[in-house]
DNA sequence: TAACTATGAATGAAGG
DNA sequence: CCTTCATTCATAGTTA
């Protein structure tokens, strides 16, 4: 009872009908629409296909993939479609961000330097040290977008497979968490100054 | 220091085979990517911005905010992005739950009704459910009360121990408004007022 | 120590 | 494609 099987890529009625929450009823025919949770085997397959270069399978291919995945659990065409769409999107964004952060701090090398801090969107390296605000990153990758040649057809991009269940390079860093907690008035001083950089703030202040 | 990975909270939906991407073998070096832990000052700022009405800052603004937060500790754009998204989502959820439980039994409108499992959650401020139209009514900021009246004993003075102030502020009631970029000074109005509840802030301002 | 809570970080599903 | 929402996973911190 999950798997949305919308036959077509396009639309699907499907309104999250916000039904009752809570109460784990024992009732059969559960109305609650739970989302598809791809099983590891399914992810493996999807990931493989994606990394093989088929990042945007046509409908025909999507159906085939779905049938394949179905051997390991219920799944609909839509699920497959969405999966590729999201994978594509997030992969690209991740890539873009990686590039951007790499530009800001060339020191971070692929080896092992990931740490807390997060990134622009998906995962990104820390921000450690005093990275002066130099980053005004732009769109940073010609990427595929330009190739609008064939609609909904193979789009071999050879993503470097930045991440997947298997080639995940564990990166851990000792690193110290600078617990630099500024004194309160220093904070205010700084905050005040910062806020003043907002024209709207100055306007507001002069208004009162 | 093994940090066993056997937690297994939640996870594990009937997965057919024995294979799980999350609880699988973590035999290697600890891949524990520590997650971002916003500092009190950062939370104050984020909360302020959120409560000012900017519940969904555009990318541009997100970067701005990140740079601001960065003064108090390492943080990435993604962290900010996630923070707002979660804040928004959970605020809404609480709202829904509140309303639901309110509909079930209008009589119970306690501020604190600890109950196991299914009760009302901690209070989240009123939210005129998009009553639409005109009246923005209000203006009553949640902070108010104690703070403004008299110097309600804020022993600032101390150079360092004034952190506890932030925890007070951060728990103040917020109000949600439509997810639009207000582009106005509401944000600053709220922030300004909030900050003014800090004697040390006022002192600082009058000093410059 | 285990259960619980709050919340950061993903990711499935849509809307535009 | 992009952005947003809802749900889920994972964990630092707290509590009994």
Whole-angstrom Rg of chain A: 23 Å
Q: Which H/E pattern describes the elements of chain A?
A: HHHHH
- Counting DSSP E segments of at least 2 residues, the number of strands of chain A comes to 0
- Round the mean pLDDT of chain A to the nearest integer and report it: 59
Q: What percent of residues of chain A are in strands?
A: under 5%
| Count of alpha/pi helices of chain A | 5
Apparent shape of chain A:
elongated
List the uncertain runs of chain A: 5-29, 109-184
Query: Class by helix and strand content of chain A?
Result: mainly alpha
Work out the largest interface and the residue count of each chain: A-B, 60 and 61 residues
- Terminal Cα separation of chain A, in Å? 58 Å
Most strands sheet of chain A: none
Q: Which oligomerization state do the chains in this entry correspond to?
A: homodimer
Helix content of chain A: 25-40%
Please sum up the structure shown.
The structure is a homodimer of 208-residue chains. Chain A is mainly alpha-helical and 208 residues long. Helices cover 35% and strands 0% of the residues of chain A.
Task: Report what the structure shows.
Two copies of one chain form a homodimer. With 208 residues, the first copy, chain A, is mainly alpha-helical. Chain A is built from five helices and no strands. In chain A, helix 2 (59-69) crosses helix 3 (77-104). Chain A is elongated, with a radius of gyration of 23 Å. At the A-B interface, helix 1, helix 4 and helix 5 of A face helix 2, helix 3, helix 6 and helix 7 of B. Chain B binds a DNA duplex (16 and 16 nucleotides) through residues 7, 9-11, 22, 32-38, 56, 78-79, 82-83, 85-90, 92-93, 179.
């Amino acid at each position: 009872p999950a798997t949305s099987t919308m036959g077509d890529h396009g639309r699907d009625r499907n309104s999250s009908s916000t039904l009752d929450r809570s109460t784990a009823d024992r009732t059969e025919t559960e109305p609650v629409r739970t989302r598809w949770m791809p099983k590891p085997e399914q992810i493996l397959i999807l990931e493989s296909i994606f990394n093989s270069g088929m990042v945007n399978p046509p409908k025909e291919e999507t159906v085939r993939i779905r049938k394949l995945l179905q051997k390991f659990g219920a799944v609909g065409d839509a699920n497959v479609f969405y999966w590729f769409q999201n994978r594509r999107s997030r992969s690209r964004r991740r890539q873009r961000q990686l590039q951007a952060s790499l530009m800001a701090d060339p020191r971070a090398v692929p080896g092992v330097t990931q740490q807390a801090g997060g990134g622009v969107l998906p995962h990104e390296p820390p921000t450690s040290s005093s990275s002066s605000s130099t980053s005004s990153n732009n769109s940073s990758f010609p990427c595929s977008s330009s190739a609008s040649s064939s609609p909904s057809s193979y789009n071999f991009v050879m993503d470097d497979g930045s991440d997947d269940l298997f080639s995940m390079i564990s990166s851990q860093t000792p690193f110290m968490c600078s617990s630099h907690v500024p004194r309160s008035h220093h904070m205010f001083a700084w905050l005040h100054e910062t806020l003043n950089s907002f024209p709207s703030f100055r306007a507001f202040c002069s208004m009162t």
